[in-house]
Amino acid sequence: MPKTASSLLLYILIASQLQKSLTSDSSATLSTESSESQCGGYCFTALKPILDHIAANQQRWNACDATNQQCEAKLERIESQLVVLQEKVSAIEAVKTPEGNLVVIPKAKKLENFVQIGSRFFYIEQHHRVNWFAATNICRQMGGHLASPSSEKEWSAIKERLTRGRNYWLGISDLATEGLYLSQATGNMASYLSWSSGEPNNHNNKENCVELRSDSDFLMNDIECTYKTYFICEAANES
């Protein structure tokens, strides 16, 4: 075969193999045996370095894809941690006075404003709206916890003292495990739950804290913990 024709055949085969490698699945590898049978020893000797180069690049591309997936997963974890930190900062900021000092409640006043409802004592905040984390801190400073009604009877008695048009935080959340609503006071499953229609719905995957909602006759609603509203404390069990 003339040298010019041989060179032309080589170029055609190279172009053909390059086209196949670009259109094939990224995980596929080029078969040296099939290449050798298609163009003979001379052709294959000239073509093999190119095929090896393509195969090596395919491996690098696969490695890059795996690395990108790992980076994306790490970024998602960092973003989740950042949200938690922001919530903690919000909690600290919410219990500061306008002058920037943290609110500290004197011990003598801790139970001063608690009232007996049924067999337990509760404090109902009617003046200041704070987020769930700040309400948690304030109730603890007052010698209690955010309230968690123990029964329908107790919930009914509490709601009679609430102001229409206002919502109130409870000490119930599923911050630890989605869909598992725990009482802040006990760390166990909330003993009484009475949800508003369609709740809890975890809207936008951001609603983890529970409030009593005025427009549904003070039934329970899940909402973002950073939302600011009034709150109810229960006195800590002294036993």
Automatic annotation (TrEMBL):
Pfam families noted in UniProt? Lectin_C (PF00059)
State the protein's name. Blast:Accessory gland protein Acp29AB
> What CDD domains does this protein map onto?
CLECT
Q: Which InterPro entries match?
A: C-type_lectin-like, C-type_lectin-like/link_sf, C-type_lectin/snaclec_domain, CTDL_fold
| Signal peptide (UniProt feature, chain positions) | 1-23
The UniProt keyword set, sorted, is:
Coiled coil, Signal
Q: Which domain of life is it from?
A: Eukaryota
